[in-house]
Amino acid sequence: xxxxxxxxxxxxxxxxxxxxxxxxxxxxxxxxxxxxxxxxxxxxxxxxxxxxxxxxxxxxxxxxxxxxxxxxxxxxxxxxxxxxxxxxxxxxxxxxxxxxxxxxxxxxxxxxxxxxxxxxxxxxxxxxxxxxxxxxxxxxxxxxxxxxxxxxxxxxxxxxxxxxxxxxxxxxxxxxxxxxxxxxxxxxxxxxxxxxxxxxxxxxxxxxxxxxxxxxxxxxxxxxxxxxxxxxxxxxxxxxxxxxxxxxxxxxxxxxxxxxxxxxxxxxxxxxxxxxxxxxxxxxxxxxxxxxxxxxxxxxxxxxxxxxxxxxxxxxxx
Length: 318
Known about the structure:
single chain, six-stranded mixed beta sheet, 3 helices, SH3 type barrels, 17-stranded mixed beta sheet, Jelly Rolls
């Protein structure tokens, strides 16, 4: 099996060098298992082992499963940490006297960091609803086909293009790519998509339980769903919706959304979004065996393992 993997890796690296004759190659490092690569002239997806280092060229696609994580080095100064359940396609990467030119697409979730955004003569990272045209020093990206794109910035300033408009996103703010929205929104850390959405549409409520016991937060509207954590009595939360029978309330919780019993919330909220009683389980990002260098770029968007144990998972090395 090991011999087979070595042969596969050798062929992949050879193919990457050939690609690099016409286009620059990006360097990828597999941070946790659950990563596959597909070459442009093949329908075959090849798994990459943890800690593997390889090159990707024009037309190559990288995808991650629910645990996969990969660092994509786009230039000497720029990295994209692709998180779980995401895919990234490098359309082209080249360099001239004016600087580096990037064309790529991202579907999913990632954290982009750079120490020199001016090194790019042309930067185009295509998302589902918008295009990142200038990266910030540290920024988070959420782009899924079944949800509105969100881009948030922890430090520096980014520019995105949406509906023929250029939108600047300064530090400690984000952009929610709804139709006719043209401005970034300032909000408090951590700078994740759920927090941005809650700052726009959330309605405050206060936890009140019988006997002052902590309130369970679940991944869906029902006792059969997984527990995400608890809320203490008197905790203020942002309410995002309610089931048709009003038994369960959707709230912004940790770096995503969760569900609580409606009877345990006091609020004056009206016109909350209505969800079916059998609403599906909330999606969440899994970050398995995070390293200290990764945590430095992830924590501004996903909190720390101490405060968000639900997203940060720890398992024995595969």
